[in-house]
Amino acid sequence: MATVSRVLNKHPSVSLKTRLKVESVIQRLQYEPNMLGRNLRISQSRMLLILVPSISNPFYSKIVQGIEDVARKHNYNILLCTTDTDIEREKIYFDLVKHKLADGVISMDPAVDWDDLIGEGRNYPVIQCCEYSENSQIPYVSIDNRMAAYKAVKHLITLGHRKIAMINSDPRFLYARLRKEGYLKALEEYGIPYREEWSIHTDLGFESGQRAMRAFLAQEDKPTAVFCVSDTLAIGALKGIKEEGLRVPQDIAVVGFDNIQFASMMNPTLTTVAQPMYEMGCEAARMLIHKLNHPDDPLRSVILDHELIIRESTMG
Amino acid sequence: MATVSRVLNKHPSVSLKTRLKVESVIQRLQYEPNMLGRNLRISQSRMLLILVPSISNPFYSKIVQGIEDVARKHNYNILLCTTDTDIEREKIYFDLVKHKLADGVISMDPAVDWDDLIGEGRNYPVIQCCEYSENSQIPYVSIDNRMAAYKAVKHLITLGHRKIAMINSDPRFLYARLRKEGYLKALEEYGIPYREEWSIHTDLGFESGQRAMRAFLAQEDKPTAVFCVSDTLAIGALKGIKEEGLRVPQDIAVVGFDNIQFASMMNPTLTTVAQPMYEMGCEAARMLIHKLNHPDDPLRSVILDHELIIRESTMG
DNA sequence: TTGAAAGCGCTAACAG
DNA sequence: CTGTTAGCGCTTTCAA
Description:
2 copies of one chain form a homodimer.
Chain A: H1 2-8, H2 16-29, H3 35-42, E1 47-52, H4 58-73, E2 77-82, H5 87-98, E3 104-107, H6 114-118, E4 126-129, E5 140-143, H7 145-158, E6 164-169, H8 174-189, E7 199-202, H9 206-217, E8 225-228, H10 231-243, E9 253-258, E10 271-274, H11 277-293, E11 302-304, E12 307-309
Parallel strand pairs in A: 1-2, 1-3, 3-4, 4-5, 5-11, 6-7, 6-8, 8-9, 9-10
Antiparallel strand pairs in A: 10-12
Helix pairs in contact in A: 4-11, 7-8, 9-10
Chain A binds a DNA duplex through residues 1-3, 5-6, 8-9, 13-15, 18, 33-43, 100.
């Protein structure tokens, strides 16, 4: 019995002869090991919990791909859970870790209050990805959102725009707040006053982008450019502009964020800020797995590079 | 110890008094049950394995959403695995079931040969979704792919097109073969000869659609309409057409398949065959969970409705 | 209604 | 190098 276990785990201290014998019996009996027993014994689930706001946004899918690839390489499986940015669901899912069904978590959710969620004095392995709480000690991987937004808006200003609107997401997201700061910084730098009525918060769906755009276009004084915090919003905005019979970029320029694959397929193609989605996922997974193997090593957060990609939606 | 277990599982035979006592102690000790022990004991993982070719295609994401919602409701978690339509990966993932890490499978992959994969005389709970092997006994949920394709192509013919190309996916996929049959049937019905050079097989990426379109447009005798077996391909095709300076639908009409959200956001908006993606996922999950609870109940496969959605890419 | 005891299938320490 | 044994944390008889 122990020997079988050793064969299965490729433990070196098994003679060739017995190994072959065991293997042949395994073959003959069609024996399949039961990992439930193993998991209990070694007290690991070899599962990584991934918390995403939504799976239908290609931005998140791409990150998940990165996580999955690295996880596989280290013999971990992925438990993908969509939270809809709902605190309650987040809590329920986190129970999977508390209950040992997952060894650690990578979260892309605003994460209400990890310190509270985790509880006093516990040390659950948690990595934040894209989204993070500034005041907690939990390591994260992200980009410089403020700077990225600043560059995007500056690009518009450089093109001569002075009436620049912003379609933002839920301010519970840190990235939403940071990108707004970048937006404001760019405006300020060029002495452009901020206009409340040109700033909308919404969810990341296409329709929301479309709706926001409609709202801008219904105003008497219309913006000539729009900065959207996600490509999905920008795509909705393009649609909203088109249905008013206006042209992009001649009448209104549009900038998105993320550089999802669809961005370059649009008509016009979308200017956007590229995030290294796949790489972020990989890095987050690497960090988590490292933490699992070395629980006491302090982990440093990682800021990856972004890049402004200029396409037709700002420069026809 | 047994009593604690009973309290945790809400077993009725616990007096109010002891239950409260146990609960208060649980609270005080911050006790968290270890599901690894439970899983071993009851010999269930309460996990559902989901096999998808790729997660970046919104078509699959939507189905997964449906599965997840139903699974949650029944207290199952989801193990999402992307196979890239690679037989080897499929096998490796299926080991999760053999090893009891998942209680059952929903597969959207061509599934080489389930009967072979599963092995003689075993009865693993497997449901196929969208994609299935015709000759196996494994239940599936899908649409009538042949009919759907037929209707799509007929729509083009009715509009006056006689030169209709097809961008198809890997013929390992049954749906690819069935949709081709529908395409051929429509052509035949109207006495239009099939042209080998107007039929391409490729993967589902945008670029592939774009490339296929370029190939068509490089031919001397160009088609005036294209039927694509997925919206992602169709979106790529739109791009390919645009880069040649042609107009949709005036010069070339395009039909997609799936009705992913992006389809209505394109410019022009995309005519496509809507599949009830979310509902298919729900149904597959329901079937699987039923099978888990009643292993010997025979399950009937399900064919859901599709719908041709006509938009600008065929009728400007 | 509660407690004692067995055992799910595995791994790891120990002895031989 | 191999076999024996204990025990991971839980549920479920069985007896009290």
